[in-house]
């Protein structure tokens, strides 16, 4: 079982991410630590091995590459779509993105992902988090920085509270 909580308790949020150069992983680790919830690196697992049974919110994180999420995120979206009929409860997805800030490539990535989901059982939260991520060794250097990480944690906390208030 991949769902991990330091206190051995059931958690209903799960951080899922994919990364090429580690920027999104930095944010993923910070959110998971702060929320004290499980974390899954899609580059290291088979989708079928991820236990989503009690999960109601996935914090889904990726860089943007040519206006698209990481290939594993796209494949995970397809997996969620095809396996959604096995779920009785709704699943919410909240995106956290690291990027260079090129045009609207963050929104293009989100739109592409939404296009994969044909199911009514998965909701994409409108409120997503984004911050810069260093790339090509000199663009957006030193991002994500401390400030980015604090903002990400604040956002994730807000999303969790919002979720529980519904
Ligand atoms: C091949 C490549 C393509 C990229 N394309 C975009 C893009 O379209 N828009 C953008 O804002 N950033 C782009 N970036 C920057 C990455 O999204 C950014 O560095 C991100 O933080 C990488 O996340 P990761 O370290 O988790 O892989 C690109 C970077 C690479 C290496």
Question: Can you describe what's shown?
Answer:
By secondary structure, this protein is α/β, with parallel strands linked by helices. It has a single domain (13-150), classed as Rossmann fold. 35% of the residues lie in helices and 19% in strands. The chain is built from four helices and six strands. Strands 1, 2, 3, 4, 5 and 6 form a six-stranded parallel beta sheet that branches. α1 (23-35) packs across α4. The protein binds flavin mononucleotide.
Key structural traits:
disordered N terminus; 166 residues; Rossmann fold; binds flavin mononucleotide
The CATH topology corresponds to Rossmann fold
CATH-derived architecture: 3-Layer(aba) Sandwich
Q: Which word captures the global form?
A: globular
Which homologous superfamily in CATH is the superfamily? Flavodoxin domain
What distance separates the N and C termini?
Answer: 28 Å
Number of helices: 4
Number of strands: 6
Please report the first level of CATH classification, the CATH class.
Alpha Beta
Main sheet, how many strands, which sense, barrel? 6 strands, parallel
Structural class: alpha/beta
One letter per element, helices H and strands E, the order comes to: EHEEHEHEEH
Helix content: 25-40%
Radius of gyration: 15 Å
Which hetero ligands occur in this complex?
flavin mononucleotide
Our count of domains comes out at 1
Mean pLDDT: 90
The fraction of residues in strands falls at 15-25%
What ranges have pLDDT less than 50 throughout 5 or more consecutive residues? Answer: 1-5
């Amino acid at each position: 079982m991949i769902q991990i909580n330091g206190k051995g308790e059931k958690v209903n949020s799960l951080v899922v991410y994919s990364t090429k150069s580690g920027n999104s992983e930095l944010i993923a680790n910070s959110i998971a630590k702060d929320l004290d919830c499980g974390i899954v690196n899609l580059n290291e697992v088979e989708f079928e091995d991820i236990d989503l049974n009690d999960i109601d919110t996935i914090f889904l994180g990726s860089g943007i590459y040519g206006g698209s999420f990481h290939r594993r995120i796209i494949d995970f979206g397809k997996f969620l779509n095809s396996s959604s009929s096995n779920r009785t409860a709704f699943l919410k997805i909240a995106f956290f993105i690291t990027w260079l800030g090129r045009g609207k490539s963050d929104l293009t990535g989100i739109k592409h992902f939404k296009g994969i989901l044909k199911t009514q059982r998965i909701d994409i939260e409108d409120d997503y988090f984004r911050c810069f991520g260093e790339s090509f060794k000199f663009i957006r250097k030193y991002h994500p920085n401390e400030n980015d990480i604090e903002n990400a944690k604040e956002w994730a906390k807000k999303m969790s509270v919002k979720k529980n208030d519904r």
